[in-house]
């Protein structure tokens, strides 16, 4: 809500459309939203009308509302983004037909389909919801026990699909970047342009999760990839945008740095979560504002310059396990003393770990150079291990692994994928 | 209780901290939109007036919120 308010400025009028259930569940939210933006309109699949002055367009920043936003936009005959391309299985199918991916995918319409997928793809393979984002409910299936777990818990409303696992180029032991990146693209009147590309921190696979759930852990600017590799990645993403029915707006595409070359993981038809704070910090570019401008049919902002040494990162530090309550008492001030430039979220002592999606904290790091960022991130996690000692952070978990990797000397490019592409 | 104390005490309670500096910014010290709503509602319940909520969402500093709340309470 705050991002939208700041992005709208004085020249874009935002008309909030709220699901009827949200107003009942969060009355305070509705009151504040009314005071910030004006009268709210309640909508759902049976109520697509928006009274008052005609809208210029409809946009959402939530994956779960892409279809409703598209339905409203279509009903009103105003600028909107179609929802068809948001289905990840559709994406994979179209991209494969266009020769833009080698990854095969299958729909899961019955529990027995997991056995069929296992026989066809072998291990490992990946199970995802056809709609979803940020690693939510993504499962890497690497043993038969996980297949059995998925079969036992399968329900048709999960709308799952399975796809082949994309092997990664073997990472250097001390590489601290993930084996995937994200590309943010704007689409205006059929023209697609890269806004910027983010590096990532490696994902966290939850140890106590019998089905191997994956959690994303953060984003980095500037992207660490060598120029030629980055071009290859971005060209692939733009090519995908040309063959999919994506429509105008801003998208967030995740790309794996595969052993055989870059492979699109998925395209999310909305602004990437937690990224706006980083682009605004590094270049002043507002992703949310760009989405609003494009939706409103107004001239978009100039694309950000991607130069400069300044390095920024958002980091979501996971608890080793999802269950239980937070034992440590850690303040935002302590995290700032440890090197965080800003603290967006922090797990409170006594609260359920699940309240923060099993994250100890969500912070921003802001340094003069990438090397400085690496050192700061390393020191931050070392301190975090002390602060969250009672929650066992930093012991046989993501944090411990990252402390080792961040502390080790990073080679140029920081990833074996770069070596393959450069012919080294 | 003065507006200053009302705002400070609720700010600290919502963010779960013992104390806060005037320059602290809500959304950079663990605050989010839902916590912001909680904070505004608590302040308004105690002061009995509507506080300019946009101050918290735009400036976001404790100092600005205290100033705006004090001004609202004195009108």
Automatic annotation (TrEMBL), chain A:
Keywords from the UniProt entry: ATP-binding, Ligase, Nucleotide-binding
KW Cytoplasm (keyword) present: no
Ranges for domain ATP-grasp: 92-296
Record PROSITE patterns: ATP_GRASP (PS50975)
Protein name (database record): ATP-grasp domain-containing protein
Protein source organism: Actinokineospora xionganensis
């Amino acid at each position: 809500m705050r991002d939208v308010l700041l992005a709208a400025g004085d020249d874009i009028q935002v008309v909030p459309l709220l699901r009827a259930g949200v107003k009942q569940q969060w009355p305070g939210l509705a009151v504040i939203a009314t005071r910030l933006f004006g009268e709210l309109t309640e909508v759902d699949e049976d109520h697509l009308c928006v009274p008052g002055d005609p809208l210029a367009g409809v946009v959402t920043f939530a994956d779960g509302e892409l279809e409703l936003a598209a339905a409203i936009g279509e009903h009103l005959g105003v600028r909107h983004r179609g929802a068809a391309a948001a289905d990840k299985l559709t994406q994979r199918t179209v991209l494969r037909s266009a020769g833009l991916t080698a990854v095969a995918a299958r729909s899961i319409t019955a529990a027995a389909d997991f056995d069929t997928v296992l026989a066809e793809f072998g291990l490992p393979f990946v199970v995802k919801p056809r709609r979803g984002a940020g690693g939510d409910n993504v499962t890497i299936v690497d043993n038969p026990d996980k297949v059995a777990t998925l079969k036992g818990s399968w329900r048709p409303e999960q709308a799952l699909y399975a796809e082949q696992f994309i092997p990664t180029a073997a990472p250097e032991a001390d590489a601290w970047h993930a084996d995937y990146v994200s590309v943010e693209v704007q689409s205006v009147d059929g023209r697609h342009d890269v806004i910027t590309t983010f590096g990532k921190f490696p994902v966290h696979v939850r140890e106590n999760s019998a089905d191997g759930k994956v959690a994303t852990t953060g984003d980095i600017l500037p992207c660490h990839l060598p120029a030629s590799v980055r071009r290859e990645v971005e060209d692939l993403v733009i090519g995908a945008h040309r063959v999919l029915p994506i429509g105008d707006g801003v998208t967030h595409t995740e790309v794996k740095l595969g052993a055989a070359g870059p492979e699109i993981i998925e395209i999310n038809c909305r602004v990437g979560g937690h990224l706006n704070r980083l682009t605004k910090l590094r270049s002043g570019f507002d992703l949310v504002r760009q989405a609003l401008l494009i939706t409103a049919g107004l001239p978009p902002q100039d694309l950000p310059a991607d130069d400069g040494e300044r390095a920024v990162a958002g980091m979501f530090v996971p608890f080793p396990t999802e269950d239980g309550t937070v034992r440590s008492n850690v303040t935002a001030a302590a995290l700032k003393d440890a090197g965080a430039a800003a603290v967006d979220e922090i797990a409170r002592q006594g609260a359920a770990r699940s309240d923060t999606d099993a994250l100890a904290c969500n912070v921003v790091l802001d340094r003069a150079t990438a090397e400085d960022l690496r050192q700061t991130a390393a020191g931050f996690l070392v301190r975090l291990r002390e602060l969250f000692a009672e929650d066992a952070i930093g012991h046989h978990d993501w944090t411990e692994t990252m402390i080792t990797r961040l502390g080790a000397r990073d080679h140029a490019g920081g990833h074996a994928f770069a070596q393959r592409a450069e012919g080294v | 209780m003065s507006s200053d104390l009302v705002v400070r005490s609720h700010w600290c309670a919502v963010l779960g901290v013992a104390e806060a500096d005037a320059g602290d910014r809500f959304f950079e010290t663990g605050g989010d939109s839902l916590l912001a709503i909680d904070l505004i509602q608590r302040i308004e319940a105690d002061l009995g007036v509507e506080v300019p909520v946009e101050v918290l969402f735009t400036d976001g500093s404790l100092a600005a919120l205290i100033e705006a709340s004090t001004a609202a309470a004195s009108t």
